[in-house]
């Protein structure tokens, strides 16, 4: 299927690796010109070079911390009029809510709610004027099925989801959609780090714990960044203009509900 977005411009946040990189790769493969941002300049440029080599697309690396005003200003200066925005930022640490301070909450809300809102605010009017826009927020399966030790993430990402639910109904009349992609267990550095932590706590081998985790998923495996990226690319496509304010759960069937 031709997704109909060749020649479009996209900003993809936190795209040096993992799910963000998967999204950037998939968009570039569809002929989208991509600006990627992340904090580590060397890793980001390596990713940009690899995507260019794989797809032939124009990929620009813009190093910076997207959760800061300076980081957002840098990528918006490089690409002031994107047609596609993929919001993404690392999640806050797990823990017991009794131990979290107001600073902890402010950091989580800034990274996983307010940063995305700021980027939407900076780009959505231009998208509406041009009558094409796609915003995809990478959040978490915990939006549908909260995890008690991830309360900071639960709260911040649910807040973003609630905000989008209203705005997405206002923008769609001008062919601008805003949706969420909710990842469950994907084969990423973040997932691997959780198994390393479990291994350190239990003394059991990392690979053994990972094999158990994969087997416990209804799909019998973890997801890949590539398939996540393809789902993102479809939501960004010309064919997805009637999908807005929705949250696509990608968890291999872990969530047991019907809605």
Explain how this protein is built:
- The structure is a single chain.
- The chain has helices at residues 18-29, 41-55, 69-78, 102-130, 151-171, 189-202, 206-216, 225-235, and strands spanning 9-13, 33-38, 59-63, 84-87, 133-138, 176-183, 247-250.
- Strands 3-2-1-4-5-6-7 form a 7-stranded parallel β-sheet, sandwiched between helices.
- The longest helix has 29 residues, at 102-130.
- The chain is globular and about 55 Å long.
- The chain is built from 8 helices and 7 strands; from the N terminus they run βαβαβαβαβαβαααβ.
- It has 259 residues and is α/β, with parallel strands linked by helices.
- Helix 1 packs across helix 8 (225-235) and helix 6 (189-202) crosses helix 7.
- The chain starts with 8 loop residues before the first strand and ends in a 9-residue tail after the last strand.
Mean pLDDT: 96
Order of helices and strands: EHEHEHEHEHEHHHE
The largest sheet has its strands arranged as 3-2-1-4-5-6-7
- Quantity of strands, as a count: 7
Instruction: Summarize the amount of helix as a percent range.
Output: 40-55%
Beta-strand percentage range: 5-15%
> What's the Cα radius of gyration?
18 Å
Determine the oligomeric state from the structure. single chain
**End-to-end CA span:** 28 Å
Weakly predicted, low-confidence segments: none
Counting helices, strands and paired strands, the structural category is: alpha/beta
Shape: globular
The DSSP helix count reads: 8
Largest sheet: 7 strands, parallel
């Amino acid at each position: 299927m031709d997704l109909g977005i060749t020649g479009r411009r996209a900003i993809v946040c936190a795209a040096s690796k993992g799910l963000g990189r998967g999204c950037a790769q998939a968009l570039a493969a569809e002929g989208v010109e991509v600006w990627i941002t992340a904090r580590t300049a060397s890793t980001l440029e390596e990713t940009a070079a690899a995507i260019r080599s794989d797809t032939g697309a124009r990929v620009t690396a813009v190093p910076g911390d997207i959760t800061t005003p300076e980081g957002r200003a840098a990528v918006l200066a490089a690409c002031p009029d994107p047609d596609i925005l993929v919001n993404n930022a690392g999640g806050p640490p797990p823990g017991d809510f009794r131990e979290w301070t107001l600073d902890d909450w402010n950091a989580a809300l800034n990274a996983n709610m307010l940063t995305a809102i700021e980027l939407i605010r900076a780009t959505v009017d231009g998208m509406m004027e041009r009558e094409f826009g796609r915003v995809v927020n990478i959040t978490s399966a915990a939006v549908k099925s909260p995890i008690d030790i991830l309360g900071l993430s639960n709260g911040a990402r649910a807040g973003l989801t609630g905000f989008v639910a209203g705005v997405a109904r206002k923008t769609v009349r001008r062919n601008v959609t805003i949706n969420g992609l909710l990842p469950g267990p994907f084969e990423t550095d973040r997932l691997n780090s959780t198994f390393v932590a479990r291994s350190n706590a239990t003394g059991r081998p990392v690979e053994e714990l990972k094999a158990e985790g994969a087997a416990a998923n209804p799909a019998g495996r973890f997801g890949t960044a590539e398939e996540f990226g393809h789902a993102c690319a479809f939501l960004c496509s010309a064919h997805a203009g009637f999908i807005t304010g929705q949250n696509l759960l990608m968890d291999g069937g872990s969530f047991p509900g019907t809605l």
